[in-house]
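During the reporting period the student researcher (J.K.) took over the structure-prediction task from the postdoctoral fellow and processed the backlog of single-chain submissions. One of the processed entries is reproduced below for the supervisory committee.
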Amino acid sequence: MTLLLVHTGGTIGMAPGPLGLEPAAGLVEQALTALLPDNVQLLTHIFDPLLDSADLSPSDWNRILDVIDAHPGIPVIVTHGTDTMSFSGAALAQALAGSGRHVVLCGSMVPLGQGGDAEANLALAVRAAQSPDATVELVFSGQRLAAAGLVKHDSRGHDAFRSQPQATLLPPRKRRFDDRRLAILTLSPGLPATVLVAALGGLDAAVLRVFGAGTVMSDPAILAALTDAVAQGKRIRAVSQCEAGGLEPGAYAAGAGLWQAGVENGGPETSEAALIHLWLNP
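J.K. obtained the following structure tokens:
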């Protein structure tokens, strides 16, 4: 059996340096090789330079997908920082929907060799990658989590991730990310309409985090900003600011303005999943 490692960077592959933790060449590859059964061969693709996950961009998702496509039929382990793991999880899960590929994302809150969670997470990644699944998942803190709906709910604890149920993924219209200007915007009480107008003016499409099951303030200027943006051909996809539960159009009159403006219903999608949906389904 052959496994493919795509090492992008992140805490799992760092070591102490003069200014703090910094990427350490070879650390992840050596640790993973030591965990492999005798009958498993390892192929590697290492980002150069290694990246903190805060620096990963849609072009890097394309790089990962290109490497995966270049090795058909081989299970893949992607080591990655935790800060944007939810975005990359949604990106790979949606881009690879229907492809039959098995991709295991793995990271840690403490680097390898520091007595933390890295070794256990990497060992679980090896076991998961050898299973006959066709899915994109994250292994973390003893769990195997569907990557399509990841939420990093704890910035410090080892049990840092949850996975929210998502609608069944269908093959996307595109499998790569372009340079359209997309972002996640959040409603807050008292938000000036001018701020929303300015933000939407600089974007091609946006995810809008709304209240609860799908409500929005009744400010006519806010609703006009949404209506005007949609009329200009800008897709706006609404998701809930709540971690779980999703949206329920029609549940509250306070949400009627959203749907009348032409805002899309993201249903149970996380903010990250909704953003990826807009990118891959223009």
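The committee noted the following: Residues 166 and 268 are 6 Å apart (CA to CA).
J.K. will present the remaining backlog at the next meeting.
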